[in-house]
UniProtKB/TrEMBL annotation:
TPR repeat ranges, renumbered to this chain: 118-151, 187-220, 296-329
Keywords: Repeat, TPR repeat
SMART domains: TPR
Top-level taxon of the source organism: Bacteria
Gene3D superfamilies found in the cross-reference section: Tetratricopeptide repeat domain
Coiled coil: none
Protein name stated in the entry: Tetratricopeptide repeat protein
Family annotation (InterPro entries): TPR-like_helical_dom_sf, TPR_rpt, Ycf3
Stored Pfam families: TPR_16
Length: 364
């Protein structure tokens, strides 16, 4: 009913000087994506030759995570008006549909059309950063920076990430400071400041920054994960367990995908194992494996928990499954670190055809 009223009001604007296309562009600029999409749709119904309406609707659909619809509209805009702008839009559309090679192809084509079109360089840099090819991402991001009159926040965020990952701490810190001194308060700036401090093993200062990141944005799960990691690095396992529990509650409340929830239980299981709560670790690792069966380290951690609980048969089964999933990992080294704790299990495994060496186990 509300949508019908909205459409009637929008149609009333036809009597005004402002067109539905112009109204849609205003709504897009105001980040009112749903109503903006409706306005652009009406504009298309009035005149199907306006490429700007298809392009604007695609931008709204991108913001609304309607990737298939956005790609179709970007393509229509490009066919009608093949410029660097619409070609970049088509590249973004393919990126959202996870066709990264085609996305790169169109973004490079956009640069060929207009070597000064900043958005094309920015999006190529973002794709390479997403692929964790940070040295490749940097030149595109820096080129984009030189073309923009005012650097967009998305570019600053990307450079902060790339500088951090390539070890350019001073450049990363410069962007962090610019964010902190601006009117835009961003959780990510505090998160990355904490990561820089964590890398220097300045744990208390890192915790302060991570907690500030969470205070700014309570949905920043990664900042909470980093808090837990700092506790783990300091062997404060009880504090880590509490933080991991908060993370589990949040990802479950948000109905996150099973992989993320399973990973959260895995890390809490590791913390409980380190704290000596082997039964608690076993419960968490059982849950993790039930949610995501392909994680080798979950099976291996459950192996360790079962060894401590004297369930050698179950431990051996989990160990063999872990090796099947990750044959390149030398699990034996871990078991050999404390031979007295694992001697009985190693002897049990030997009787069942598994021999341990310093590199890898051999099943005979």
């Amino acid at each position: 009913m509300q949508k019908i009223i909205w459409v009637i009001c929008l149609l009333a604007c036809l009597g005004c000087r402002e067109s539905t296309l112009e109204w849609g562009q205003k709504l897009l600029a105001a980040k009112n994506y749903e109503k903006g999409r409706d306005a652009f749709t009406l504009s298309i119904q009035e005149d199907e030759t306006h490429w700007e309406a298809y392009y604007g609707r695609a931008q709204c659909e991108t913001a609304l995570d309607l990737s298939a619809e956005a790609l179709a509209d970007y393509e229509k805009a490009y066919i009608m008006h093949p410029t660097a702008e619409t070609c970049t839009g088509l590249g973004k559309g393919y990126w959202d549909e996870r066709n990264l090679e085609k996305a790169k192809s169109y973004l490079n084509r956009a640069i060929g059309m207009d070597a000064d079109y900043a958005d094309a360089y920015l999006n190529l840099g973002l794709i390479y950063a997403k692929e964790e090819e940070f040295p490749k991402a940097l030149p595109y991001l820096l080129h984009a920076k030189g073309l923009y009159k005012q650097m967009p926040e998305e570019l600053s965020m990307a450079l902060m990430l790339v500088y951090f990952e390539t070890g350019n701490d001073p450049a990363c810190l410069e962007i962090i400071r610019s964010f902190k001194s601006s009117d835009t308060v961003t959780s990510a700036a505090y998160e990355y400041h904490g990561r820089l401090l964590q890398r220097k093993k300045q744990y208390q200062q890192a915790l302060k920054e991570f907690n500030a990141a969470v205070d700014i944005d309570s949905t920043n799960v990664y900042a909470k994960v980093l808090v837990a990691e700092v506790y783990a690095q300091q062997a404060q396992y009880e504090a880590e367990i509490k933080e991991r529990t908060r993370i589990i509650r949040q990802v479950e409340d948000q109905k996150a995908d099973a992989e993320l929830i399973g990973l959260s239980y895995y890390f809490r299981g590791m913390a409980k194992d380190n704290a000596g709560d082997f039964r608690g670790a076993l419960r968490d690792l059982d849950h993790s494996i039930a949610l995501s069966d392909g994680r080798a380290w979950a099976y291996f951690c459950r192996t360790v928990a079962k060894i401590h609980l004297r369930d050698f048969s179950g431990a051996l089964q989990d160990y063999q499954q872990a090796v099947r999933l990750r044959p390149d990992v030398a699990f034996d080294d871990y078991l050999s670190e404390d031979p007295s704790s694992y001697a009985t299990f190693i002897a049990y495994a030997s009787r069942h055809g598994v021999r341990f060496s310093h590199n890898k186990s051999t099943i005979i």
